[in-house]
Specification:
The complex is a heterodimer of chains A (about 150) and B (about 400). Chain A has six helices and three strands; from the N terminus they run H-H-E-E-E-H-H-H-H. With about 150 residues, chain A is of the alpha+beta class. In chain A, strand 2 and strand 3 form a beta hairpin. The two termini of chain B are about 40 Å apart. Chain B is of the alpha/beta class. Classes of the chains: A alpha+beta (about 150), B alpha/beta (about 400). At the A-B interface, helix 1 of A face helix 12 and helix 14 of B.
Chain lengths: ~150, ~400
């Protein structure tokens, strides 16, 4: 197999795909946002429970490809206990990382474990998969009332 | 015919793209249901037209225009022969199958159907044979009815018969399902509908490049296909319609070519087929389609069908050996389309992994979301074969699928 595919589907991504963290519905969520890419079929709900300005709990459920699912899983793991502003900042960094030109460096310190998703930019047709849960999150934090999709 | 009797190595030389490499791997093109590749002679015909013959048709009094008009007309004649239509006036050039289906829903539907009438389709239709009827429903109140399919992806003919009530005033069915490969018994469907005086349209997008079609033998009232799925250029397609229907239908669009005379008070429409071809058509595309039809007829659709069926049998056997693979669409009568799901791997992950091996397949809902819902899958991976594909390419697909299962272990 060519190395770059292995890089995309590396161990941590496959682990999150197989054993997603915070993968459940949340009955008492403050915000429930659906993200749906009808062309490829990625379809998730992101649940957020706030404590003032802090994300007290966050979870997701639904179905999709390994990239979208692991991205959602890592996102929930990274954001529990973070403030709204911190979550917004991480969204921006992840967005920068995913949408950069292939081969360009990015600030790994700012994204932590999410750097695992850094290789997705080499697969332009898959960037929308990785970014879908993040856009659902953003809609949860800053509601616009629009249907969340990245296609 | 033995599979060896079909000289696929020689045939592949006619298709320049099949020599291309993707990620330093030979291109394995298995997305023929989306669009087929083009033989050099079709590409040459486009170049020839634009570099030596370009002129508008039906108007110039100069040599080039006359020549272009002649070639355009001759292509119509070729399509007539290809479908065995009774007259070349029954061949309307459109942008593709989608436009042909929309044209009939619009022009026939708004003239001859009324609120409460039913249009019977099947559960395996492409969105382009669902949405135009829903739009017509919103506009004039007709009701689309859906005939069910079984777990093999075959139309349940008994249920179809039951749904064919006196309320049904039009039937529109796909000849070959793009998502499942199922070949519908269209001749039988037409016979049943005609017994009740109901006209039938057939969506032939996935049929014409793979099986001989004779519209007079089928006795269909309308038949639609796209040029680009038949080795021809994109942006050109065909609507066949029986003259008795086309003559009674109003034009689709107004403009040049479709009129006989215009004044601000009154416009007289042109005769068939021009009545339905407003504006300058895709002249190069039509000429290219004519050349594509010559090419495919020279190869022979009987032989193509035979060869592709052997490829399908080979591919089915090999794919079923991949652990965790489940075929979606196992009809008895099947075209060379292999739609499947594989363990926990999502179709798009499979698509990405295969792509890096140079293998082009389709992953998704194939513009047939009701089919996905019927089989309770979000998406499938689809390998769709053409006569220039080989057993070796299927082996490559299978090897790459084994790698997918390794990644998703």
């Amino acid at each position: 197999m060519s190395g770059d595919v292995r890089e995309l589907y590396q161990q941590m991504i496959m682990d999150h795909n197989k054993n997603p963290r915070n993968f459940h519905a949340m009955a008492d969520a403050d915000r429930t946002v659906e993200g749906y890419n009808p062309l490829c079929g990625d379809h998730f709900k992101v649940y957020v429970k706030m404590d003032g300005d802090v994300i007290r709990d966050i979870s997701f459920d639904g179905s999709g490809c390994a990239i979208s699912k692991s991205s959602a899983s890592m996102m929930t793991a990274a954001l529990k206990g973070k403030t709204r502003a911190e979550a917004r900042a991480l969204f921006s960094e992840v967005h920068k990382m995913l949408s950069r030109e292939a081969g360009e460096p990015f600030d790994t310190a700012k994204v932590g474990k999410l750097a695992t998703l850094g290789g997705v930019c080499e697969f332009p047709s898959r960037v929308k998969c990785a970014s879908l849960p993040w856009h659902a999150l953003l809609e949860g934090l800053e509601p616009t009332g629009k249907q969340v999709t990245t296609e | 015919m033995d599979i060896e009797d079909f000289d696929v190595a020689q045939i592949r030389k006619d298709f320049p793209i099949l020599r291309e490499q993707v990620y330093n791997k030979p291109l394995t093109y298995l997305d023929n249901a989306a669009t087929t590749q083009k033989p050099q002679i079709v590409i040459d015909a486009l170049t020839q037209y634009y570099s030596k013959e370009n002129a508008n048709i039906h108007r110039g009094i100069f040599c080039l225009s006359e020549q272009a008009t002649k070639r355009y007309k001759s292509a119509r004649h070729k399509v007539q022969g290809f479908l065995n239509a009774a007259s070349d006036k029954e061949i309307i050039f459109v942008r593709g199958t989608t436009e042909a289906l929309n044209l009939v829903a619009h022009c026939y539907g708004r003239t001859f159907l009324k609120a409460g009438d039913e249009v019977l389709i099947t559960h395996m239709e492409h969105h382009s044979n669902i949405v135009p009827w829903q739009m017509l429903g919103e506009a004039i109140g007709i009701k689309p009815k859906v005939a069910p399919i079984n777990d093999q992806g075959e139309l349940v003919l008994e249920e179809f018969k039951k749904l064919l009530t006196d309320k049904v005033k039009f039937v529109s069915v796909v000849h070959v399902s793009n998502a499942l490969g199922t070949i519908n018994p269209v001749k039988e469907i037409i016979r049943l509908a005609h017994a009740k005086g109901i006209p039938v349209m057939v969506d032939g997008a996935q049929a014409v490049a793979h099986t001989p079609v004779d519209v007079q033998d089928l006795d269909c009232d309308f038949y639609a296909f796209s040029g680009h799925k038949l080795l021809g250029p994109t942006g050109v397609g065909v609507l066949y319609g029986k003259k008795e229907f086309l003559e009674k239908m109003p034009p689709y669009q107004g403009g040049g070519d479709m009129i006989r005379s215009v004044s601000f008070e009154k416009t007289t429409y042109n005769d068939l087929p021009y009545k339905f071809e407003a504006g300058t058509p895709h002249i190069a595309g039509v000429i290219g389609l004519g050349v594509a039809i010559d090419y495919i007829q020279e190869l022979g659709l009987d032989r193509i069908q035979d060869y592709e069926h052997k490829l399908l049998e080979y591919g089915t056997e090999k794919l079923l050996q991949v652990p965790g693979l489940r075929l979606i669409g196992t009809a008895n009568q099947k075209s060379a389309i292999l739609s499947f799901v594989l363990g926990e791997a999502h179709a798009h992950d499979i698509g990405t992994i295969l792509d890096r091996q140079g293998i082009a397949i389709r992953a998704g809902h194939h513009c047939a979301m009701p089919v996905m819902q019927r089989f309770n899958v979000p998406a499938t991976t689809r390998a769709s074969l053409a006569f220039y594909n080989t057993r070796e390419e299927i082996d490559r697909l299978v090897a790459a699928l084994h790698e997918v299962t390794e990644v998703f272990r």
